[in-house]
Amino acid sequence: MLKLKVTGMTCAGCAKSVSRAVERVPAVERALVDLQSGEVTVEGNAEETAVRRAIEDAGFGAHTAT
């Protein structure tokens, strides 16, 4: 499981965009986006760099959650 902090999400539509982008990454089984905390939890064996790139390509920032 991978957890990333996502920057730039301001609404439910943003969260949906992040979820769709992450779920298209190979080896992602499920993406759970929490708009309030600004985090996405990724289930599966996807590469962190691929997930980050997908989020950034969707117009948001991403870094490892602490």
TrEMBL record:
Pfam families: HMA
Domain of life according to the entry: Bacteria
Keywords for the protein's UniProt record, in alphabetical order: Metal-binding
PROSITE patterns tied to this protein: HMA_1, HMA_2
HMA domain ranges (all copies): 1-63
Gene3D superfamilies reported for this sequence: 3.30.70.100
Protein name: Heavy-metal-associated domain-containing protein
Species this protein is from: Azospirillum aestuarii
